[in-house]
């Protein structure tokens, strides 16, 4: 299997070279530049997340991805994730089919329930319907992927009667579902024959091997398509471990302590950070050699087809993220390929 390498961002509002916070608008423009750089250094996929709060600049990933599509030619473009539960499946399909046309078939969508809940009250949804919203909307979205007239009825939106949706894609829309650690979610992905993206943000990647095995058993039981599995995890790369860790810790501390205060988390400490970047943690931070070796361990443990590094965590400076992207493409990816060549 040919391993694909990706990068992802939640659109964190970042700092300038002077240490001051940038505007959301400038942060969005910087993301476009980061994606262009990613293609230049050989990255195969670029994902942009959806959020609706002040720490994150991107609430409409498709708009940002369309701008990236106009400035790139090869890199595949998708989300990390699209919060389907608080959106309309028909509109999501239409937007991504349009992105697919603009990008000449490079669009992908990663659907999720949303670990941040701001979009639910913002768009008039009740969090008590969290599970039902996603289940019904995913069911409808899978029907829309067939690109034929749809008849559907549920409880979370108006019914459809022989409804046709446009534009059509030229070769279908590649669709994944982001899963954080629920066996039921893995089985659901397999039942619909979609791609599985494992969001691993805590603990060693090897702990997720049971989910990989469950996905394969479930696709076999349902008789559905088997797709390569993707892993999405945070990290930061610099020329040395010390430089990477200092920058990543500053960003992670700022992000965790802001969001953590709302959620009752303990303060983020350097000791916790060092555990996160170690062998038993989920962060891929350090020098190119260290990050490459950790990615290789993950690929070997899980047998994945795509590794996606969430390269932006907290208000990192744009220049530091650009350097991280450059090292990922020019140093990390070649090292990983070389180490896996004999497997």
TrEMBL record:
Signal peptide: none annotated. Pfam families: Bac_luciferase. Residues 19-303 form the Luciferase-like domain. Its EC number is 1.14.13.107. GO terms for molecular function: limonene 1,2-monooxygenase [NAD(P)H) activity. It comes from the Bacteria. It is an enzyme of class 1 (oxidoreductase). GO terms for cellular component: cytosol. Keywords: Monooxygenase, Oxidoreductase. This is Limonene 1,2-monooxygenase. It comes from Microbacterium azadirachtae.
